[in-house]
Design goal:
The chain is of the alpha+beta class and 204 residues long. It has three domains: 60 residues, Nucleic acid-binding proteins (OB fold (Dihydrolipoamide Acetyltransferase, E2P)); 68 residues, DNA polymerase, domain 1; 58 residues, Orthogonal Bundle (Helicase, Ruva Protein, domain 3). Helices cover 46% and strands 19% of the residues. The chain contains ten helices and five strands. The protein has a five-stranded mixed beta barrel. α2 packs across α3, α8 packs across α9 and α8 crosses α10. About 8% of the residues have low confidence. Pfam families: HHH_5 (PF14520), RuvA_C (PF07499), RuvA_N (PF01330). InterPro entries: DNA_helicase_Holl-junc_RuvA_I, Hlx-hairpin-Hlx_DNA-bd_motif, NA-bd_OB-fold, RuvA, RuvA_2-like, RuvA_C, RuvA_C_sf. This is Holliday junction branch migration complex subunit RuvA.
């Protein structure tokens, strides 16, 4: 199984790229995020790879980070989410945003991806809500508190997320803690109560 490729970028299209490794060109399917991170043609590249073997083909999926590859693996455990749909989700949401969307039960953000309707988005959120916390989110494009709070319009939620961010919480951690606090306190919970309960839950 191929797990990593290190070579030279030969070509890149809308959803795939070719990496030359010692004279052998490997075609990898990739998210728009990974393709934009590969750099110009002829530049050296390193791609983390997930290999899928089917009866009629061997397909390589490439990722700019291990986080993105790990989320690809997790997304494809959901019924109805194949490799192309998982890449479509990763094209519109970086790993930290996927984790936050699942923590906040934000199906609308997941449904932004091509090929993902409301029912599939709901299934993804429901099936992964207990698994998402097992994946870390490493260094990568920073996620603003505003992006994490895109679904809830309530100012108390936004203020609570901002407060936790100021205390050093990562966006995904803040989103998860505030979501749990709101689930316990109800949709009308105020800023102070949300922060108090979120801090208590994050300290467990």
């Amino acid at each position: 199984m191929i797990a990593r490729l290190s070579g030279v970028l030969v070509s890149a299209g809308a959803d795939a790229a070719v990496i030359d490794v010692n004279g052998v060109g490997y075609l990898i399917s990739a998210s728009a995020r990974t393709l934009s991170a590969l750099g110009p043609m002829g530049s050296p590249v390193v791609a983390h790879v997930e290999t899928q073997v089917r009866e009629d083909a061997i397909q390589l999926f490439g990722f700019a980070s291990e986080d993105e590859r790990d989320w690809f693996r997790l997304l494809t455990t959901v019924q109805g989410v194949g490799g192309r749909v998982a890449l479509a989700i990763l094209s519109v949401l970086p790993p930290a945003d996927i984790q936050a969307a699942i923590a906040m039960r934000d199906t609308a953000s997941v449904a932004r991806a091509n090929g993902v309707g409301p029912k599939l988005a709901a299934r993804i959120v429901n099936e992964l809500k207990d698994k998402a916390g097992t994946l870390g989110v490493g260094a990568g494009p920073s996620v603003s508190v505003q992006a994490v709070a895109a679904s809830p319009a309530d100012s108390a939620v936004r203020d609570a997320l901002s407060a936790l961010a100021n205390l050093g919480f990562r966006p995904a951690e803040a989103g998860r803690a505030v979501a749990e606090a709101q689930a316990e306190l109800g949709p009308e919970a105020g800023f102070g109560d949300l922060v108090r309960v979120a801090l208590k839950k994050s300290a467990r």
